[in-house]
């Protein structure tokens, strides 16, 4: 917990992301803490159900590899077929990535200094049309698109879903913890003979 707070403090100040308010920093820290707890409890569960530690050490990278492949980074959510969308929605990594990316990249584009609820559409691609807009842009792409616009479109992000992502991660952590306790109770290789 403390090491995660230390990491977030160094990482967020070094990268200048999620530093708009104390709320953003707290949300980023808490969401990463939930994900670390989820991974830790998954590892504990696999260690308990595996007859030997080497089995658990093989299973963890396999599961995490599957999570990475289906978290919406390699294949965006919009391209996942209906047949396999359940893999995406049962993946704790996608909740962590969606939430952390939303916290790190979000900027209210509709505020008066920027697009002003589409009353200033020139601001979309021309920074000179809204010089006071402090939302970061992807200037290296040649079209000065807003970072949040690009990231949210590619990854199908919605800033208002952050609380749902936090709840989902918390439920995954609780689920893996309960499964670990049940495994301690019912796994035969832990019972005394």
Automatic annotation (TrEMBL):
<dbReference type="GO" id="GO:0140359">
    <property type="term" value="F:ABC-type transporter activity"/>
</dbReference>
<keyword id="KW-0472">Membrane</keyword>
<keyword id="KW-0812">Transmembrane</keyword>
<dbReference type="Pfam" id="PF01061">
    <property type="entry name" value="ABC2_membrane"/>
</dbReference>
<feature type="transmembrane region" description="Helical">
    <location>
        <begin position="30"/>
        <end position="49"/>
    </location>
</feature>
<keyword id="KW-1133">Transmembrane helix</keyword>
<keyword id="KW-0813">Transport</keyword>
<feature type="domain" description="ABC-2 type transporter transmembrane">
    <location>
        <begin position="4"/>
        <end position="103"/>
    </location>
</feature>
<dbReference type="GO" id="GO:0005886">
    <property type="term" value="C:plasma membrane"/>
</dbReference>
<protein>
    <recommendedName>
        <fullName>ABC-2 type transporter transmembrane domain-containing protein</fullName>
    </recommendedName>
</protein>
<feature type="signal peptide">
    <location>
        <begin position="1"/>
        <end position="20"/>
    </location>
</feature>
<keyword id="KW-0732">Signal</keyword>
<dbReference type="InterPro" id="IPR013525">
    <property type="entry name" value="ABC2_TM"/>
</dbReference>
<feature type="transmembrane region" description="Helical">
    <location>
        <begin position="54"/>
        <end position="75"/>
    </location>
</feature>
<feature type="transmembrane region" description="Helical">
    <location>
        <begin position="166"/>
        <end position="184"/>
    </location>
</feature>
């Amino acid at each position: 917990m403390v090491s995660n707070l230390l990491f977030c403090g160094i990482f967020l100040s070094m990268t200048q992301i999620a530093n708009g308010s104390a709320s953003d920093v707290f949300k980023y820290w808490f969401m990463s803490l939930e994900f670390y707890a989820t991974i830790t409890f998954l590892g504990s569960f696999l260690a308990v159900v595996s007859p030997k530690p080497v089995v658990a050490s093989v299973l963890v990278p396999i599961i995490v590899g599957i999570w990475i492949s289906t978290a919406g980074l390699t294949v965006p959510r919009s391209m996942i077929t209906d047949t396999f969308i359940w893999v995406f929605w049962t993946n704790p990594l996608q909740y962590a990535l969606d939430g952390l990316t939303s916290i790190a990249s979000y900027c209210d584009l509709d505020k008066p200094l920027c697009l002003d609820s589409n009353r200033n559409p020139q601001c979309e691609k021309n920074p000179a049309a809204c010089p006071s807009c402090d939302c970061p842009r992807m200037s290296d792409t040649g079209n000065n698109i807003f970072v949040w616009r690009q990231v949210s479109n590619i990854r199908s992000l919605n800033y208002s879903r952050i609380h749902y992502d936090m709840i989902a991660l918390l439920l995954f952590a609780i689920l893996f913890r309960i499964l670990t306790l049940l495994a301690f109770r019912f796994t035969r290789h832990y019972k005394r003979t």
